[in-house]
């Protein structure tokens, strides 16, 4: 059963009527196939009009859609012969961060992803995609492994942020996130990062400080969640919609600001409506990015990456 967001209620009603008609025997005087075709056209038009003018808060809801493809889906769909590698060699394995070796379109790569899970059981198992220090230390270990063996890195980012629990802080959460970002910036191999859902705070940047940062059309990427921002600025989480607009967290906003490199189009109605098409589109974008980066030597990659992120923090004077 399809899950509809609040702003999709008119579409839900139309699609509900279509399903009812499909289950009905054809009565006298009513051409059911013709009526289904008419309602389908209306629903498609409504869907197109709705998604053409989504607000930042509505895009946030789409990015969090429970049926949206997760990192595990992208890895399963795009990476052949995936071999998971576990553990940070210090404390434990963190299921919120997936990582391992595989082949992307015939090219050996190291793959990382933050995994939210798709149902209650898997969400709990993956801690809703919120990694602890051992997750970021695992990421750092695999990034460094990629550098030693000359393998490009592909990351799929979908997290509301690093886990804020006391146990995580006690084990050095901030240091682990910072070291993972450092590993990304110093990697002597190409690193392509894809924001596929939520890109929340340093927990996202820890896997996304790449040479090319791709972002799905309805994904979000921000220093803080809209609810967290509203709680701090307005002391009212109900102001999340206003915060989402102020944060400039949509793909189009971030591309205009120069914080992401490419926006990958999603199927009409979001990636959750046609996951296979979303995976294909992301696969093409990753392939193009890798083809541009693989010919570059390590010194050039590191220098360009350094310049890219320093430029983001500079203010124009004069």
Reconstruct the topology from this structure.
Layout: H1 9-23, H2 32-51, H3 56-63, H4 71-78, E1 80-84, E2 97-104, E3 107-114, H5 120-125, H6 133-149, E4 153-159, H7 166-170, H8 173-186, E5 191-200, H9 201-208, E6 212-216, E7 220-222, H10 226-233, H11 240-247, H12 251-257, E8 262-264, H13 275-293, H14 298-313
Description:
The protein has 318 residues and is α/β, with parallel strands linked by helices. The chain has 2 domains: 16-53; 60-313, 2-enoyl-CoA Hydratase, Chain A, domain 1 (Alpha-Beta Complex), CATH 3.90.226.10. Helices cover 50% and strands 15% of the residues. The chain is built from 14 helices and 8 strands. It has helices at 9-23, 32-51, 56-63, 71-78, 120-125, 133-149, 166-170, 173-186, 201-208, 226-233, 240-247, 251-257, 275-293, 298-313; strands spanning 80-84, 97-104, 107-114, 153-159, 191-200, 212-216, 220-222, 262-264. Strands 1, 2, 3, 4, 5, 6, 7 and 8 form an 8-stranded mixed sheet that branches. A hairpin with a 2-residue loop joins strand 2 and strand 3 (107-114). Helix 4 (71-78) packs across helix 13, helix 8 (173-186) runs parallel beside helix 9 and helix 10 (226-233) crosses helix 11. The longest helix is centred in the first third of the chain and has 20 residues, at 32-51. The mean pLDDT is 92.
